[in-house]
Amino acid sequence: MLSPVTGQLSLLVAFVTLGYAACAFLIGAGRARHWLRRSAWAAAVIGFLALTLAVAIVAAALVRRDFRFAYVAGYASRSLSWDYALSALWVGQAGSLLLWSWMSTAVALAFYWHAQTASRSLREQAFGVLLAFGCFLVVTMVFAADPMESSVGAVRDGRGLSPILQHPSMLVHPPMVFLGYAAWSVPFALVVASLRIGGPAREWIELARPWMLIAWMISGSGILLGAHWAYQELGWGGYWGWDPVENGSLIPWLLGTAAVHSLMAWRFRGVLKKTTILLITATFAMCNFATFLTRSGIFSSLHAFSQSPIGWLFLALMSVLLAVSGLLLASRWSTLQSSSPLRTLWCRESMVTAAVIALVSLAAVTCAGTISSALSDAWMGSKVIVGPSFYNMALIPVALVVLPATAAAPLLNWKVNPTRRQRRLLALAALCGLATAATAGSLEHGSFLLLAVYFSVGFGLSALATALVFDWQRTPSTVTFLQGVSQLRHKRTRYGGYLVHLGLLTLAVGVASSSLETSRRDTTLRPGESVEWAGRTVRLAAVRQRERSDRLIAEVDLEIATKRGASTVLRPARHYHRLGEEWTNEVAIWSTWRGDFYTIVHGGDADGRVYLTLVDNPGMAWLWLGGWVMAAGCVVAWWPGRRRRQADVPTAGMLRVAQVEQPDRSRRTTRSTGAGRRFPRDPGRSKRAG
Question: Kindly report the CA angle at 316 between 311 and 322, in degrees rounded to 5?
């Protein structure tokens, strides 16, 4: 039953049913044609089941090492463990397309179920767009990259999986990236549907927001896992090399971050409407551009597939998406005017706008640097190679804008200037930031950029702490601690945002420290010799060789001791893989909250000398911690709660009350105009903000 022919039939069924369902929903959305709606829904479910069967066939073939499939022969072998054999499903071009199409169809069905309370027209139009994209992915497999292709002749063993891909992070990283791409299709589909039908903005905004948050979290976590894989497996001491394919996944995440914040400004103040639509469209378009970078063959990268026409199909799709969205936006341009013009620079809208501009600028610079080599080769006949220093120079001003804006946001109002008390609190938080930078400078003598990051971190932590303290002070004195904690679920959006900002500040410390203060030393040691470096004593204790069934292992024992008395033994190694006839580095890392001590062995010679590279990477633990804190904050903000009464965002000429987190508007809060007055519940809810 689990044969290539069965798999090909399942793909054909998915192609026909998803294509029919997409056309039926796009043409007959919102109309009283019950038979068309029922048949289209049934076709969508059948298409998803057919893709599920196709995924199950390839997965089972990989685990069972069924070499009748050319895909299995190309990416699996008998010596490969079952988990890495299964991971080959998303390693190859055809398999990754199959997984992506299955995830996209599953996301489409999940959206249709989640949007049951939405208007029928919006729901079905968006569902049709999602199914059309899923059908496109199936088309690429049916006509260009068939994962069910049969092997030519009898195959006794496959080529196996590349050794550098046999890492725990690669069991999760690619599926999370593709799931993030699939999730970003939902906000785009809602934008297209809303522009097409011209319905109320509040409906698609409330539907799109949770999907944007979950897509942003999944994409960011996938990028972080990819960086962790590169850090531990590639053996060069870093985690981000600005590789073209790495940039391809970073660009939509940057644009998605900007889109999340601009959507918030639209929800609360009715501004940045056109910007939000453009950013959502660009985010999904750049997801397809990332696929073009991976599959076109015009870039040389560890992550890229071989040259094929599939990448150009995704580039054409990206162009079509931008053109269609541009035409729809132009048709609704007059209805997307801002409800309230910006009247001051010291408000949350200004901070959001500044952060959006900075993030879009970094995405544009990254995109330009990524395609510069291909464009220069096509136009001038010689490649212009852009190195990491180019991107790092672009990152610096963005960080100097985004971090202070993030730090100041909790103590600012929507629309209006901060009150006198808020200005005092901002000044106090800024003084805490200066004290943090001064303390760090006196202890570590860091560079100006690192001190600027420490200032932003101190400023942001103080602002968050102040906002939390005054929010707790507004809790009635009769409420117990446990009752107060239980009431936090009503403010999970706000506190989830605070947690994301806290994670960003933590991650910034790790990135700045590891980028600006890292040090490296190449050395040669014989057994018994030691070297003093970076406050540590490194002694080469032993050199050994071991054999396994599939590889030869040459490793060394390094005894590491610090001046404070801490010690450990690290065992970096080199592995020779017999099947692929290639050497790989297996690094050894001593991780502490201060930083990572990273060791690489390059080999030895006949005289017994061993060639080593030692790397001191400060702050790495804070980088990983910051990423996971951001993900946790996103989950808190996204987590569903009680359904709120929906209130539309302010419309032009009717600037009454901004949409807020809770529907209860009966309780009034006092203005924080002086000592002894209570801090407002939320700056956006004060009378002046209304």
Answer: 125
